[in-house]
Amino acid sequence: MPNKSHICHRMLPQKINPIFKQIKPGVTKLIWPRPLRNVFIAKKRDDDKVLSASRIFLKHVHENYNVNIMSSPYTHKELGLPFITPIENHSNIDLVVALGGDGTILRANKLFQIRPPPILSISLGTLGFLLPFSFDQAQQAFKDVYESNAYVTRRSRLLVQTPKRFLRAINEVTIHRNGSPHLSQLNISVDGQYLTTTIADGVAISTPTGSTAYALSAGGPIVHPGLEGILVVPICPRSLSFRPLLVPSATALTISVDKGSRGELGVSIDGGEIELLQKEQSVSIHADLSLSESVYCVSRGSETADWVSHVNGLLGFNSMFGQLHNRST
User: Fold this and answer.
1) CB–CB of 223/208 below 8 Å?
2) How many whole angstroms separate alpha carbon 73 and alpha carbon 91?
3) Mean pLDDT of successive 10-residue segments in the chain (329 residues)?
4) Which among 8, 260, 264, 276 is most buried, taking Cβ atoms within 10 Å?
5) In this structure, is the dihedral angle defined by the CA atoms of residues 128, 133, 135 and 138, taken in order, positive or negative?
6) pLDDT at position 6, please?
7) What residues form DSSP beta bridges with 274?
C-alpha cells in the first residue's frame, strides 16, 4: 500500500456514494455500502485554538482508522502533519470534516458544487448553527459516521446564475447596493411574472438553512430545514409594506437591476466574493430539487431535535431578559 503522505488524486480509491435511509419522518440514517476511505478536512483558517484542536483530532483519526486524510494546500501547510495529503481535485472525497464555525461549512460547500459528500461538523468557531457537535464529541461522532451509526439532516441548495458564473448556495444569495450611498432599485419576478420593484439596501434570497443567517438579521422568519421553499427578504426597504415572502421551492426567481438604479450593485453568494451588476443585468435563482445535489449534514438524531436545540441554545428563542434556554446535549 502506498504511503498515505504521498497519495495523489489518481491513487485514491473511487468515491463511495452513501445510502441515506429514512427511518421515520425527520430521521435519516447515513449508511456506507463499504467502509469510507477518503476524508477531506476543512478548518477555520489562522486560528490557534482551531489549529491545536484539529491536530489532536486528526492524529486520533489517523491512528485509529484506515482512511486517507486530505486537505487544501493552505490547510496542509497550516497543520504541518505528514500523513495529510494536499489536493485540489475533490471528486473522490467520501466525507468532509469541518472544524470551525458556520463559515467553514460555507467555504467547504463551494469546493463541492457537484454531488457533495456528507459533512461532519465540529464546532470550534464563534457561531455553530450548522455544527451540532462540540470538540469533546468529535471522536465519538466520527466513530458513529465510520460505523454507519450516524444521522443526517438534508439541506437543499439554491442554483444561482449571475452574468458571470453559476453556483449553488447553501445559505443565500444577496443583491445589495455594495457601499453606494444610493439605495438599490431591483425588479423581482416570480416564474416570469413581474412581482414588484423594491427600493432598498438590497434583497436576500435564502434557503430554509439560510433563514437563521443574513435573512434573519434582515427581519425574515426562522424556517425549519425540512420545509421546501425559498425566502425572499428585503434588506432595509424604503416601503413598510414589503414584507418577507416564502415561495414554493419549484419557483424560479429573477432579480434584475432597474434601469433607474444608481451606481453598481453587488451580488454575493453565501457571503463570498462580490460580483458587480450593471443596470438591467439580472440574477436567476431557483431551488435545486435533486436529492443528490443536497448537502447532508451529520446530526445528532432527529432534524427537528437539532433545530430546536439550536434555535433555543444559540438564538435564545423567546427568552426572558438575561436568560437563555438550556441547550440539550
Assistant:
1) yes
2) 16
3) 48 91 94 97 94 97 97 96 94 96 91 95 80 93 98 95 95 94 96 96 97 94 93 96 95 96 93 93 94 93 86 82 57
4) 264
5) negative
6) 47
7) 268
What lies within 8 Å, CB to CB, of 282 at 6+ separation is: 163, 254, 255, 256, 257
Cell of 68: 486517507
For the beta carbon of residue 242, count every other beta carbon within 10 angstroms: 17
All three cell numbers of 111, joined, read: 469546493
* Cα(132)–Cα(225) distance, integer angstroms: 14
Q: Are 203 and 175 in contact (CB under 8 A)?
A: yes
Contact call for residues 311 and 324 (beta carbons, < 8 A): no
Q: Using CA atoms, how far apart are residues 288 and 169, in angstroms rounded to an integer?
A: 10
Rg of the chain in Å (alpha carbons): 21
pTM value is: 0.89
Task: Identify the three-state secondary structure at position 126.
Answer: coil
- Beta-sheet strands, E only, within 115-229: 119-123, 133-134, 150-155, 157-161, 166-169, 172-176, 184-190, 193-206
Out of 47, 94, 102, 306, the active site residue is 102
201 catalytic? Reply is no
